[in-house]
Amino acid sequence: MTEQDHHTGQPPATDPAQPYTPTVAPEDDTARTKRRWLAAAIIGGVVVVTAGVLVGIIVTASQPTALERAAEACNGAAALEGSGASAEMQELFEGSSEMRALLQGNVVVEDDGKTLVVRTRSTDADPLGASTISLECVQVQLEVPTRITESISTTRALDGRQNDQWDDYTAQWGYHPDNGLSLIISQD
Fold this sequence. Notes:
By secondary structure, the protein is α+β, with helices and mostly antiparallel strands. The protein has helices at 29-62, 66-74, 78-83, 87-94, 97-101, 132-141, 146-153; strands at 107-110, 115-119, 162-166, 169-176, 180-187. A five-stranded antiparallel β-sheet has the order 1-2-5-4-3, with helices on one face.
């Protein structure tokens, strides 16, 4: 008997003490398969995105910092190219091992690539100012603003330590005629 109660739309209960429990049609295999594929696709997408993020973090962490790149470009004979030195200046250095030696060790990276130290030599130790080529190279590589490069070049021993900042860099420097210039650049 498939008669229905016209008020509830349910078939009449055979036992009034028992509540009506509708029967659920069995799930069809196609719907179950679609849900499984959807779950697998979502999980697969999450795995791919997570792996991509991890690879990006690892690649970024293994790349040299801007300060490390500047040090590499400005230490030794590479400083001639990195500073934009004239052809005559480059020729002068190519012919003299003593001049090339003045370009070594002027730029050092510290603090896991977050600090760059540049030192020039005194006028007595470097009468041609060869060690300043490394300084000029760092200024070019890190795009140090003119206001700072001019401040650095006009600092006297009487001025003490100076500092300034640009972008995400902070610079501190001091000069003494017996020692030359000491410049420390840190990246925030």
